[in-house]
Amino acid sequence: MKLSNTNLGTIRVNNLDKTYPAQDILLQTGQLVQYGTGIYAYNNIPLLVRQNVENIIRKILNKYGCVEILLPTLQPENLWKESGRWDKYIEDGTMLVVKSDKGNMCMAPTAEEAVTDFVRGRVGSYKNLPFTIYQIGEKYRNEIRTRGYLLRGKSFPMMDAYSFDKDIEGLQKSYENVKQAYLEIFREMNLDVIPVAADSGAIGGHKSEEFMMISPIGEDTILVDKETGIAFNTEILEREDADEYLKKEYGIQNKNNVEARKTIELGHIFQLGTKYSESMKATYITKEGKEEVLQMGCYGIGISRTVATIYENSVLKDNEGNPCGISLPTCIAPYLLQIIPKIENEEKFNLAKEIYNKLEEKGIDVILDNREQGMLGAKIKDCKMLGTPYMLVIGDKTEPGKFEVENVKTGEKEILSKEELIEKFLKIKNERKYI
Amino acid sequence: MKLSNTNLGTIRVNNLDKTYPAQDILLQTGQLVQYGTGIYAYNNIPLLVRQNVENIIRKILNKYGCVEILLPTLQPENLWKESGRWDKYIEDGTMLVVKSDKGNMCMAPTAEEAVTDFVRGRVGSYKNLPFTIYQIGEKYRNEIRTRGYLLRGKSFPMMDAYSFDKDIEGLQKSYENVKQAYLEIFREMNLDVIPVAADSGAIGGHKSEEFMMISPIGEDTILVDKETGIAFNTEILEREDADEYLKKEYGIQNKNNVEARKTIELGHIFQLGTKYSESMKATYITKEGKEEVLQMGCYGIGISRTVATIYENSVLKDNEGNPCGISLPTCIAPYLLQIIPKIENEEKFNLAKEIYNKLEEKGIDVILDNREQGMLGAKIKDCKMLGTPYMLVIGDKTEPGKFEVENVKTGEKEILSKEELIEKFLKIKNERKYI
Fold first, then answer.
1. DSSP-derived secondary structure for B335-384
2. Which of B370, B373, B364, B367 has the alpha carbon at shortest distance from B349?
3. Burial B269-293 (b: 16+ CB within 10 A, else e)
4. What is the value of ipTM here, to two decimals?
5. Final residue of a structural domain among A312, A330, A361
6. Do A287 and A129 meet the contact criterion of CB atoms below 8 Å apart?
7. How far apart, in whole angstroms, are the C-alpha atoms of residue B386 and residue B364?
8. Quick one: A235 and A334 in the same domain?
9. Contact: B35, A114; criterion CB under 8 Å
10. Across the strands, what pairs with A298?
């Protein structure tokens, strides 16, 4: 991508916010544009980070046998009346209602009703079970306590999956399958995410786990046993039999050894059971020819908050520990290298364009900073504003066979020939199995 | 993709609609699910057709130097008050209004306001011009005359691009650049689309062209000169100087030689000029240090109607000329081959799975019909319901080295070894440059 084709000017950022420094950089540099409380546009780079997150999720879920579909965001009232959730959502004020010529509709805050309708009447025999379908789509909520740009907005992209089984044993298997997929998804994105059992699950009834990441931007708290690293929900300590329970369920001997950590919830998996299939009559025919209600599971990953978490996790700090830029990890960065030529030097500018074209030909996405406006120093600073993990400055002194590539995060530099440069980035690219 | 993982059962379709036979197949087989007038969910295959269309558009626009962004669908009222379009859209009833805690909002019917806001105050110098940004996103309209499933819905995906230039000469260049990209996009999808000048463009003022495809499902009419093949807008015949004008502008000698054809509009390109940049004050600084209003162009492609057109264009007919199935073109089909084993024959079923895994390993997306329910005959019919272009039946008589691959559209069959089979589909896959 040539920076001259964007509307991203060289810009200085000032007084970065301490809680969300990456957000502040994105907003100050026009990479995110705010339209109202909890409403944002994505400029190119954060959008491509989001698409990379989506593609990793998509391809790993496909690998685990899940099938992608897409449900409508505009949904008729009657669908929600059927499950009994219309009035509840209206009362608590989170539903964004739309009046159409065909009566009331809503912008979907979630999709259990829509997916149950998608499936019912179309399953038929038990032979067609189980299956897990998912979508990557926008959700809408009249969120009053919006928070930290992409963390909790009025509109946000989510991956939501739904499993359909003939019985509880089947549901448990489908649930475990999605759980394994989730673990691989977060591993692939280099996010250290822990599944934490929600208390409701442990005390019987339907199992449910939250995928939590320890992070200063978190608004949840989990408890971690210092010795074993086992994490669990704070609610467990409120149980009368907490000591005994921790020993029995987790093998934790001493609850004084447990510490609270701030976490952000990136995903959730949940055994729904028959809540929606019963009220909305989603059934199948058993081997014996009887009609039975489907067992459902539901599974979500917050895509925008995953993007936000990746960004805040990628903040660079100066010698005094103050945030001063971003360096996205290579497993997710849309552009691996930023080539910054001194454009006034025609020979060097041509050299930069040659390298850029070579890398693009090989399918390696890189940025060429060919902007007319801005001095070399400002452009070097901009590389840290855009979060590109590697930088190649081509100045007056650069010799054609000796390219100094800098790892923006570590500051490490290496001198490479053109071939070595291509090989290095081809290797990094090929390590990314799903993007 | 394994069909056992979907909710697609073997199903017979009956009494196919004559106007939209593909739509009828998609609805009867649960590949599209209707939720209300103009509101649909996509099952896996049509969704992937849509994603392929999106990716072709995306990658070709990127090649032409356009940069992808994403604007919000939920937009505050004040943005639309500024351009003066809020009241207009409310009056004509096409705006879907949403009441939030922060006042009135709308579900964006179009994005000129949002993109002007995205850009204004961020361009600065003339040195940062020109640029063309685009998004692929959902649009919402309270469409009362919904039509033919994906053709005109209440909610539909669109690609909308916007160019920003310092003067009219620049705008014309940006416009021509997007026009060339469009021609390549439709060529890549094997759609025979003609740019037709809208009359408004021809009589001066701002130029505008519609990308029309001759099709029985079309609701527009264009005139085509039988001799030269030149197409133009019907409005031209209403001009007093029509004869002279046709000669001068198009070299058409005889307007009696012109015939009317039904067409569907898949894209539109438009030189907006300063309509939005003036009312919303989107400016830049000239070389002389003066503040000037930006020149804008806007460009759209209807993604869902492109999907619908591809499907209706892919309908198979029986000997009596009646619609009997779908065969998607290989340039867009999500799955190239459907492998249909007789699953009761364990040896043959294993052979089918081996072929499936081999193809998937090579990155060739194919369907394995491993459904427990359904006889071989029904499954063979289903291949035509799902639109997969090639079929491989593995029955009792299939020998391991002799696979009979059928081109579903032409009925041609060829016997291939495993290696030849893989080579054939690798070649088809690699011909698709952008998906």
1. -SEEEEE-TTSHHHHHHHHHHHHHHHHTT---EE---SSS-HHHHHHHHH
2. B370
3. bbbbbbebbeebebbbbeeeeeeeb
4. 0.96
5. A312
6. no
7. 17
8. no
9. yes
10. A162, A270
Min Cα distance B386 → chain A (Å) is 15
- For A67, the closest of B44, B97, B117 (CB atoms) is B44
CB-CB under 8 Å, B42 with A69: yes
Cis peptide before A130 (omega within 30 of 0): yes
Q: Is A67 on the interface with B (CB under 8 A)?
A: yes
Chain A residues lying within 8 Å of B373, measured CB to CB: 124-125, 127-128
A186 lies within 8 A of chain B by CB: no
In order of A75, A189, A191, A236, A358, the CA distances from A250 in angstroms are 43, 27, 23, 11, 54
Give the burial class of A344: count Cβ atoms within 10 A of its Cβ; 0-12 exposed, 13-18 middle, 19 or more buried. Answer: exposed
Residues B417, B399 contacting (CB under 8 angstroms): no
Residues in B closer than 8 angstroms to A96, CB to CB, are 74, 98-100, 105
Angle at A170 (CA atoms; ends A165, A176), nearest 5 degrees:
110
Q: Is the Cα dihedral A260, A265, A267, A269 positive or negative? A: positive
Q: Tell me the CATH number at A376.
A: 3.40.50.800
Exposure letters A2-40 (e unless 16+ CB within 10 A, then b): bbbbbbbbbbebeebeeebbbbbbbbbbbbbbebbebbb
Q: Which two tokens stand for residue B349?
A: 């079923």
A155, B72 contact by CB (below 8 A): yes
Long-range contacts of B16-22 (CB under 8 A, 24+ apart): B16/B322, B16/B323, B16/B324, B18/B323, B19/B148, B19/B216, B19/B217, B20/B148, B20/B149, B20/B217, B20/B312, B21/B312, B21/B315, B21/B323, B22/B308, B22/B311, B22/B312, B22/B314, B22/B315, B22/B323, B22/B326
Residue B209 lies in a domain: yes
CATH number of the domain at A114, please.
3.30.930.10
Cross-chain Cβ contact A70/B35 below 8 Å: no
- The answer to whether residues B362 and B231 belong to one domain is no
Residue A340: the pLDDT is 98
pLDDT in tens, A332-384: 999 999 999 999 999 999 999 999 999 999 999 999 999 998 899 999 999 99
Element (H, E) at A77: helix A77-83
Q: Is residue B239 exposed (0-12), middle (13-18) or buried (19+ Cβ within 10 Å)?
A: middle
**CB contact at 8 A, A22 and A401:** no
Q: Note which residues in 206-265 of chain B have CB less than 8 A from chain A.
A: none
State both tokens at B113. 């306001």
- Say how many residues make up chain A: 435
> Contact B2/A65, CB-based, under 8 Å?
yes
Answer yes or no: do B373 and A140 touch at CB < 8 A.
Answer: no
**How far apart, in whole angstroms, are the C-alpha atoms of residue A244 and residue A223?**
16
Task: Identify whether A175 is part of a domain.
Answer: yes
Residue with tokens 């590109």: A388
For residue B142, give how far its alpha carbon lies from the nearest alpha carbon of chain A (Å).
6
**B308 shares its domain with B163:** yes
Same domain, B409 and B306: no
The range of the structural domain enclosing residue A218 comes to: 42-73+108-312
Report the domain count for chain A: 2
Of B313, B344, B366, which closes a domain? B313
Render pLDDT for A402-420 as a digit per residue (tens, 0 to 9): 999 999 999 999 999 999 9
Residues A307 and A415 in one domain: no
Q: How does pLDDT run across A114-158, given as a tens digit for each residue?
A: 999 999 989 989 999 999 999 999 999 998 887 777 888 999 999
Which residues lie closer than 8 Å to B238 by C-beta, 6 or more apart? none
**Minimum-distance CB partner of A117 among B35, B48, B131:** B35
Give contacts of A124 with chain B, Cβ < 8 Å. 9, 373
- Cβ–Cβ contact B98 with A under 8 A: yes
